[in-house]
Amino acid sequence: MSQQQIGPQSAQGSGGQRPGAPGSGGPTPASFGFGPGRGGPAGMGMPVEKAKNFKDTFRRLVGYLQPHRFALIVVFLTAVLSTVFSIIGPKILGNATTAIFEGTFVPGAKIDFAYIADILLVLAGLYIISSLFGFVQQYVMASVAQKTVRDLRRDVNEKLARLPLKYFDSRTHGEIMSRAVNDVDNISGTLQQSLTQFITSIVTLLGVVVMMLSISWVMTLITIVTLPLSFLSIRMIAKRSQLYFKGQQKSLGELNGHIEEMYTGHSIVKAFGHEEKSIRRFDEVNGRLYESGWRAQFVSGMIMPLMGFIGNIGYVLVSVAGGLFVLGRSITIGDVQAFISYSRQFTMPITQTAQIANIIQSTIASAERIFELLDETEEVPEAAGAREIARGGQTAAAFKAGHTEETASKAISGPLAPPKGNVRFEHVKFGYKEDVTLIEDMNIDVKSGQTVAIVGPTGAGKTTLINLLMRFYELSGGRITIDGADITRLKRGSLRSIFGMVLQDTWLFNGTIRDNIAYGRAGATEEEVVRAARAANADHFIRTLPGGYDTVLNEEASNISQGQKQLLTIARAILADPAILILDEATSSVDTRTEIHIQRAMSELMQGRTSFVIAHRLSTIRDADLILVMNHGSIIEQGTHEELLTKGGFYADLYQSQFSGRKTQKAI
């Protein structure tokens, strides 16, 4: 996604010092929309993403904090106390400075070292107490933040499990991952750091103003007057630099895209001899990036010197005014020292508050995206009294009493009998959009143990038929039954447990080969895993690997071949022992020898089971009990291979075109 991500690092990078620490500097670029976490090489010029509905999203996010309200009260109190004890320090330290000054320069006076020692002890105590409160604040806030984010992650994960397949079909994996990971991490960082910083910044600002006013309202006015000059100057520079940063980001995006394209298709670029063209394109974009980059850095680099200059002007004015007041004996030298320290701290909480306000805006935008996910329409709720399908053994008393499967599904509340695999589509109607119908009045009757092949051009509706059978999508009309039971009256998990899938795109996870096969059935023993591998003709190649069944597959399982991947998925399906198989022809991307092994394994898997085969090579489905020919969402022909060839229709043309293509290849 293109959204700006601001994590804990950016939340902390707002000045480099604890709020209220003596010697803190003036405004930072971050306070004006610049600085770390703002995007680009220097992090400048990127606008802060804002929520569409800030109030409602903020209120909803606060709802996740409600269970921890007492802990948050502790955080607030400790943050206030920690900051207050820190703010008092410069004023007390000024008394020590005054005592040394008067003891040195006032005739007849001497330095009271005992008094100074007492002051230093008091200061040490204040800073120790401040640090302790700060520790408690961070400790409690860390617990609150992580518990809140844990609850948020749990809700997101549970929501993803309840979302229908169409949600995932209509969005990229990157977008979903960004909401589930990046946006949650953004909230985590803000709760962990920025929330407490915001509290301490506000308390520091108020405390510093109070302390400065208690010393001299005139010097306080001088300090405040210099702020607008800083803001005005920086805004003028920022406005100009943002134009250059915008160009820099655009050029950087083009450069990254070009590099990704060229290195992803590196072999293609070389094969067609476009290396020079690629280099010229790189140099062109890189040149634009250089031009906009150095201009952006130069203009934005003027900010800190200008801020330092204005800050020093204010520092000089305060020092001169303080000196005059000391000469007039209206304030002490220690008060001047304390005031200078406060004036250096004064701008820090302002800049931090401005930066944190930007971070909070981005955080609420992240929360809004998460809540949009949580508000997505879920799968149709399970029907009242939805049934389970028994696995292994006839357990339903109604069947023993002679009920038919259909009447039993209504008459009893216990599990249905183990599935046999009879499947019927009765006047099925479906469309991905309400006003566009893809499947109209589909009727299919598949008997237990039959092999049904589904053929047709791309977009004909082959995969849609399978998705409807497994209830990944809900019907617009009609019904689908398995052994006479309407699938809408069955629990989804139970329904899908009777299916086994072997798809063209294999899915194996990062783990051992044993674990990947055992994924087919929970609690499978070592003997059962090996037996399934042997049935899938996979045992031999597994034992030739260095680790055997303990060989660890990497994230993309690229350390084994495509054919070996497919054999493992077949072994997994054999171990699952499903009543109904769904096979997406898996031999299109393997060599002939491997294809023979896979076909044998699939034949073993299909024995005695109802099988739906999405076929691409028509030569592999000649022995199917029923072939469904689909086009534009409708079954236009059905029958056996010989019957369809005799009709001379769509299937015959499709078969002859493939056969002719092979003859031509052989002739060549």
Automatic annotation (TrEMBL):
Gly residues bias located where?
13-26
SUPFAM superfamilies on file: ABC transporter transmembrane region, P-loop containing nucleoside triphosphate hydrolases
Region of interest (Disordered), ranges: 1-36
**Which GO molecular function annotation, any one, does this entry have?**
ABC-type oligopeptide transporter activity
Gene3D superfamilies linked: ABC transporter type 1, transmembrane domain, P-loop containing nucleotide triphosphate hydrolases
Q: Any stretches that span the bilayer, and where are they?
A: 70-93, 113-136, 303-327
Membrane topology recorded in Swiss-Prot or TrEMBL? Multi-pass membrane protein
Q: Name one Pfam family in it.
A: ABC_tran
State where the protein is found.
Cell membrane
Q: Where is the ABC transmembrane type-1 domain?
A: 73-362
Q: Note the InterPro entries from the entry.
A: AAA+_ATPase, ABC1_TM_dom, ABC1_TM_sf, ABC_transporter-like_ATP-bd, ABC_transporter-like_CS, P-loop_NTPase, Type_1_exporter
Could you state one GO cellular component term attached to this entry?
A: plasma membrane
Checking PROSITE patterns in the record gives: ABC_TM1F, ABC_TRANSPORTER_1, ABC_TRANSPORTER_2
Keyword terms, alphabetized: ATP-binding, Cell membrane, Membrane, Nucleotide-binding, Transmembrane, Transmembrane helix, Transport
Q: Does the keyword Membrane apply?
A: yes
Q: Which residue ranges have biased composition labelled Low complexity?
A: 1-12
All residue ranges annotated as the ABC transporter domain in the record = 423-657
Q: What is this protein called?
A: ABC transporter
Provide the species name.
Answer: Paenibacillus beijingensis
